[in-house]
Every structure is written in C-alpha cells, then in structure tokens.
C-alpha cells in the first residue's frame, strides 16, 4: 500500500512511520504546519508544530529512509480547531480541540488530500487499535491504558477507519522509546507534548482573554446569591474548584465547584460537590465508528480524554444520544464529548448539549 505517515516531530509518529516501512508499505512522511507563527523552540513538553518539530520530523524521515514533505494547513486548522475552540468557550461550553483536530484535520483534510494523491491510507502515532472483521473495521482501545487515545478518535467513521493505520496500539509506550533508540531516531528521549498544542504556555484563560476580551459578571450560588465577581465566563469550566476567588466561605466550610456557566447574563454558578452530580445527559452530532445503534445500549462511557469508564444506558432518538448513568457522574460539561464503548471497542461519540443533575430531583 501507499501510505502517508503523519509525522509530528515526536517519538510516536516517527516509530509509527518506521513500522509501516518495515511492514512493506510504500511510505511518504508529511509534517503538518498548523501554526501561522511557529515558534523556533518548544517550551519543554508544551506546544507542538514548532520549527524545531518540523526539523525533528525531517531528520526522522531521513533515518527511516522515506521522502518527506511539509503541508501548510494553518488556515484550515485555525478555522476548524482554534476558532471553534474560542467560539465554544464564548458560548459557555468546554470543547476538546484534540478530538476536533482528528475529525477535521488529520482524518478529513489530510485523508482527503492523501486519497486525491493516490495514497491508500494515513498512518499516525495514536495509541489505539484497528480490528478487521467481516462487517468492517472496528476501533479499539490501545493495550497501554495510560496512553490510550481512542477517546479522541471516537469521531472517526467507517470510511475514515478503512483508510487509517495506528501501528503503535499494540505496544506499551516504554517499549516505543526503546525501539526508537534502537532505530537510531534522535527523538527517542524527546518529551511528549501535552495540554493544548496552540497554547504553548498552557495559560488557557490568558489565551481566551486575548481572543474574547473581558466581560465582567457575577459569581453566584444555586439560589442566585452573589458571592463574587469575575472578568469573563471563558475563564471557567464546569467542575472547576481552584481560582474561583470567592471571598465568602461556604456555610459548611467545604470547597465549592463551578456548576454552570451562562455567557448571556455573564453568570458563573457555584455549589457543593454533591450539586455537581449528573444523572443523565443529552448529546448531539453523533459520529459512529460503525453502523448507528438501533437498540438501547447497556455499555460504558468516557467523558474526558483521560477519564474513567462509567456504566451507562444509551439510546439514539432523532439523531440525538440520550445517556443515563448507572451511578451519578461528576463535572459533566456541555461541549465535552461522550464516547461509548462496548468492551474495548469504540461505538462512537457525540457532543454533550445538556445535563440533568441529581439534585434537580431532591
């Protein structure tokens, strides 16, 4: 097969490309230039898509012995990922930009271009597994639970999975670094990137403030009593405990958490941990990795990239996904993705629109 290997400049994508060559495929490496103003050097493990990263990717391609190109996708990334991220926060929601990048960039824009150039598939360094079955391809969790990235790949449909390879899904991360060193790849000890790649300093609130400006409002309790003030709702996420800057302590002396964010009236509502508990949610824009479910599902759900599995009952009604938790879940926020699993198999994902709290029935 002719395979396009997406090479970020990190150890995972470099080893993934090398494994595809070793498997006998005709491989071409490509680095995605996603930043309009790339930094010369990254700051430790923060950020990506720097000039340094592109050079690391090129050096890895030279060692592996494959052609290498850089594709400028900065405008597409800005429109589909960065602008979406800012707009979601402005609306009081909590988006996952990595999930959106996989959906819109790596397995939409890149795959479309690859197929147009007569490639058969795209390979990445994601930690997940693809299993071929008589009914099509299935997306499964990686064997290394600490590195599993199936959550952010839950947006991929059957057509995209048919043209995807994840060569690292069957291997623990510690072995990948050792393999990179054996292959003579200089990125073997390079730190993994983390946090949001386009916010290199990790200051999400500062980034959003530059984009959205200040919009002062009140911090209130569930009864509407004013407890403090803020400079913008975009500085908060549901479930947040630190940085609330409330001068008045709670009556019971226990910590308070963000329960709700309302940009329209600029209110941030806080309350106790018990008030965070959610019994059910409604989600929209489902993306199914296989056929859409037609029956009620008794499965597991994951609500954050590194969150734990939760037992749920899920139904699809008029292109919406209704999810009820077996036990109440904490800090479930509109804008997050709910990804459904049957064992290790990813069924699909949807974007959370609304939640119903357990305290609404008390």
From TrEMBL:
Superkingdom of source: Bacteria
Binding-site list for ATP: 6-13, 32, 125
Any one Pfam family match given in the protein's UniProt record, by short name: tRNA_Me_trans
Catalytic activity: S-sulfanyl-L-cysteinyl-[protein] + uridine(34) in tRNA + AH2 + ATP = 2-thiouridine(34) in tRNA + L-cysteinyl-[protein] + A + AMP + diphosphate + H(+)
Primary location group: cytoplasm
Site (Interaction with tRNA): 126, 336
Region (Interaction with tRNA), start-end ranges: 147-149
GO terms under biological process: methylation; tRNA wobble position uridine thiolation
tRNA-specific 2-thiouridylase MnmA-like C-terminal domain ranges (all copies): 279-352
Domain tRNA-specific 2-thiouridylase MnmA-like central: from-to ranges: 206-271
Catalytic site positions: 101, 197
The entry's keywords: ATP-binding, Cytoplasm, Disulfide bond, Methyltransferase, Nucleotide-binding, RNA-binding, Transferase, tRNA processing, tRNA-binding
Nucleotide-binding recorded as keyword: yes
GO molecular function, one term: methyltransferase activity
Gene3D superfamilies: Adenine nucleotide alpha hydrolases-like domains, HUPs, Translation factors
EC number: 2.8.1.13
Family: Belongs to the MnmA/TRMU family.
Function in brief: Catalyzes the 2-thiolation of uridine at the wobble position (U34) of tRNA, leading to the formation of s(2)U34.
Name this protein carries in UniProt: tRNA-specific 2-thiouridylase MnmA
Organism: Kribbella voronezhensis
């Amino acid at each position: 097969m002719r395979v396009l290997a997406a090479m970020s400049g990190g150890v995972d994508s470099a080893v993934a490309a090398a494994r595809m060559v070793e498997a006998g495929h005709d491989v071409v490496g490509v680095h995605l230039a996603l930043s309009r103003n790339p930094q010369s050097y990254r700051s430790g493990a923060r950020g990506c898509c720097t000039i340094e990263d592109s050079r690391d990717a090129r050096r890895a391609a030279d060692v592996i012995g494959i052609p290498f190109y850089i594709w400028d996708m900065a405008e597409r990334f800005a429109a589909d990922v960065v602008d979406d991220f800012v707009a979601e926060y402005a609306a009081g929601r909590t988006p996952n930009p990595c999930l959106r990048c996989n959906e819109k960039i790596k397995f939409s824009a890149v795959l479309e271009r690859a197929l147009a150039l007569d490639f058969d598939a795209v390979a990445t360094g994601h930690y997940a597994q693809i299993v071929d079955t008589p009914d099509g391809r299935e997306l499964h969790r990686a064997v290394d639970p600490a590195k599993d990235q199936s959550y952010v790949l839950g947006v991929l449909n059957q057509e995209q999975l048919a043209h995807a390879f994840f060569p690292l899904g069957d291997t623990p991360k510690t072995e990948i670094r050792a393999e990179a060193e054996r292959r003579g790849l200089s990125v073997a000890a390079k730190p993994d990137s983390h946090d949001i790649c386009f916010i290199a300093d990790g200051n999400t609130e500062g980034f959003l403030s530059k984009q959205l400006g200040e919009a002062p409002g009140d911090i209130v309790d569930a009864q509407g009593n004013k407890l403090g003030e803020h400079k913008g709702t975009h500085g908060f996420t549901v479930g947040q405990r630190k940085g609330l800057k409330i001068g008045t302590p709670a009556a019971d002396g226990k910590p308070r958490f963000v329960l709700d964010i309302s940009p329209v009236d600029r209110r941030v509502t806080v309350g106790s941990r018990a008030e965070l508990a959610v019994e059910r949610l409604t989600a929209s824009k489902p993306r199914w990795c296989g056929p859409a479910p037609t029956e009620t599902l008794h499965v597991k759900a994951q609500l954050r990239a590194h969150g734990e599995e939760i037992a749920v009952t899920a139904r699809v009604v008029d292109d919406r996904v209704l999810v009820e938790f077996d036990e109440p879940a904490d800090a479930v926020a509109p804008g997050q993705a709910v990804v459904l699993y049957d064992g290790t198999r990813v069924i699909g994902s949807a974007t959370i629109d609304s939640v119903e709290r357990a305290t609404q029935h008390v």
